[in-house]
Each structure stands twice: as structure tokens, then as C-alpha cells.
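Progress against Task 2.4 (sequence-to-structure conversion) is shown through the following example record, which the project officer requested during the mid-term review.
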Amino acid sequence: FLQYVLTLLTEDEVAAGHLYTAYRAFAASEKAGAATERLQALHRYGSIYKALQEGHANARVRLFFERLGTMDISTAYPFLLKLFDVIGDRHELVTEVLGDLESFLVRRMVCRLSTRGYNRLFTDLVHALAGEPDDIPVRVRAALGAGTAEFDRWPDDDEFGKAWSENPLFENLTRPRLRLLLEALESGLRHEFAETQSVPRNLTVEHVLPQSWEMFWPLPEGRNETEAKVARHGLIHTIGNLTLLNGKLNPAQSNKPWLDGNDPDEGKREALREFSVLYLNKQLCDYDTWNEETIRSRGQSLLEIARDTWPRSKPVLRACPRSP
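C-alpha cells generated for the chain above:
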């Protein structure tokens, strides 16, 4: 907390190992004010930080901080402390800003862009919180969209779509971060008329076409074997071939064929149809075959949900009310 609040108050990066030196230098500066003013600022931001750590009353805000923790982006906290200090009671504004920030971070994570510049980025982003509170979402969106470099750009739909379809996310991301994506997709598939909007957490990630495919999953006929293997290995760890299962069902499915010609009730698809309640897996069961073509097709289908979940918003200036 002290690192975050000192970064905010000094408008400069503060290392966790140099808090005493950083605070002493800040206290001696003109911007620090009197000791009582510094204590009041620490108390105000401390109350905000405690409330965020204990769980916000708004469900969308809570979800944002859960996902932020999964992505391990603690450098955003100086900006977030100021955001909640300025408009914390305006939930419609706060959730708008957090939605854009989550999109910025998730898209960059999928595109494997560097996080090394985040300290400076979020320190500078605090300046977008100055001015009329109603316009803060527009200013923050414009600031996030202004970056063009590898360390600060907000990937557009083309860059995001290419990374989503081609990157072997199973290998590139930690399991919690991969679950974050799949859980969000599951949530995106649940219609408002569904009995529950709650998505099960901490399920295991399963390959539909298994990593050990040689026994039950023959390569496509009519293709060069080497080329077919290269194509398969290029797709097997992509999002189109991944789903969520509970810990007991996952090992039982493992290397099973999609459809078992000898026993129609024993294929992987029938097991998903019988035991899984996830919408991700209901959608999977619509496929009569599972191969490289269907992996690509499903990847594109999931991409549409991902783009809706994490849109690349464009800044739109709100109309100002006319003076009487």
C-alpha cells in the first residue's frame, strides 16, 4: 500500500525496497504539505485500498479485481486508488473505466505484449482523472488508445484476432490466466434467460483434441504426413481446442476419440453431453467431427465472444449540456 500511495503522491515510480528513502524525500518536498495533511491522505487512500481488498459491493468491480489479481498487474493500483478517490461512488463511471482497462490488459496479455512499462503508464494515466468527473471515462479511453509502441498500445481487433487464433495460449499463459479467458467465454455464452449467470471457478483446462492424439485421432487423409503433423501441433494448444472440465471428468476423457465408432456412448462428445453443464461444452457438442478445421472454426466463434467481452472502445466525446 505504501508503495502504491507514494507512487501516486510523488507522481513517480517508487521501489518497494526504498520506501523509507522515498517517503523522507516526499515529506521534505513542497507538494507534501503538513504532516497532518499527509496523514489524512494516507488514511483516505488506506480506507479505499482496504475496501478494494476486502471485496467491493459492486459485482462488476469485484470481478475486475479478481481478474487483475490473476493477471498480477499490481502496478495499476496507484491509478485505481485515485480513480476511486475521485469517482468511487459513481459506479456507472467506475465500471466504464474498469471495463476499458480490463480490455486493454487482457488484449495485451493474449498478444504477449510486454508489461515492463506499466509502472510509468499507470503513473501517467492518473492525469486523465483531472477535470470534470463525467468525462473521466472518455479521457481514460483516449489515453489508453493513444499508445502506439509495443509497451503501451491497446491491440485493435485485427491484432487481437490474429493472436487469439494463432498463439498457443495453453503454452503461453499460466493456468489461472487461461482459466480467466475460458471462464469469461463461458459467462459470455450464458443468455440472460439462463437459470444462473454464475460460472464455476477453478475447473481444469482440457484439450479437446488431446496432446497424445496418435492412438485415436488419425491425421487427415490425403495430406503429407509431416505437413499434417506440423499443422496439428500448431493448432492443438490454441484457444479453439481448449475447454473447461471438472477434475474428475478431465482424466476420464483424456485421449478418448471424439466419436467412438464401436460404441457411440463412449466417445468424448457423448461424455460432455451427458455430464457437463457448461455452455462452452454444450456448444462443443454441436460438432459432429473434431479436427483442424473445426478447431479453427470454434476459435473464430469464441473470438466474437472475446471481442464483445473486451471491446477495443473508441473515444467518443459526450455532448455537453447547453448553458441556459
